[in-house]
Every structure is written in structure tokens, then in C-alpha cells.
Write a structure and sequence with these properties.
binds zinc ion, 2 helices, alpha+beta, binds guanosine-5'-monophosphate, five-stranded antiparallel sheet
Length: about 110
Amino acid sequence: MDCIFCEIAAGNIPAKKVFEDDDVIAFLDVNPASFGHTLVVPKQHVRNFMEADAATIGKVFGVASALGRVLQAKLGASGMNLLSNAGESAGQTVDHFHIHLIPRYDDRTQEA
Ligand code: 5GP
Ligand code: ZN
């Protein structure tokens, strides 16, 4: 395997996991844009959201929505960015579909 997110999904590389089920894993970004910056990732390798099938999209966005609510409640975030980069020109650096969930705070002290 030469995909870092496949390795994390397989448990071969450690990550700070915040959620896992049969199809999806979510873990903290190693280089966070804010406190609680989380990546939501399908376990099956697919390059980006345009190449993912509808079921995968549904599962990943469903988990992102639920986790967004949890992060907001637990961390006291007042807002949340959800974004997904597709392609090098769009800033994608890991070629395995993922959603960034970036909690935002009123006082900005928790911005990285
Ligand atoms: P992209 O730039 O592809 O949208 O986002 C990739 C994200 O994955 C980056 O924010 C980067 O910090 C994160 N990342 C890259 N390698 C690792 C890793 O090995 N572990 C974790 N937890 N995050 C990673
Ligand atoms: Zn992969």
C-alpha cells in the first residue's frame, strides 16, 4: 500500500481516531488548522468526491454532519468549515477522498 489514508484505515499507521465504523474512519489532522480539525475518510480507496459512488458520499457526509454536531457541542465551536479538495491544483495532497471538518471559535485562540 502506498496510500497513507489506506494505511491509517487498516490500522498500520497510528492516528488520533475520533470515529470508526465498517465503512468510514475519522481522525485528527496531523497539521490542524484549528483545535479539533478532523478528517472524515471512507475506508475504501477512492481518489476524490467526484469519483466516489453515491453510497460512499452519503456515508462520509453523514458521518461528517454527525461529527460536526459532536465537535461543536464538545469543543464549544461556534462555527464549522467543511471542505474537500479534489486534484493537485485544488490543493489535494493526499489522493484518497477525505472531508476536512474544521471547527471555528469566536475567540480565535484555538486557531492553529
Ligand atoms: P488535502 O491537502 O489533501 O486536502 O488534506 C490532506 C490532509 O491530511 C492535510 O491537512 C494533512 O495535514 C493531513 N495528513 C497528511 N498526512 C497525514 C497523516 O499521516 N496523519 C494525519 N492524521 N493527517 C495527515
Ligand atoms: Zn487510499
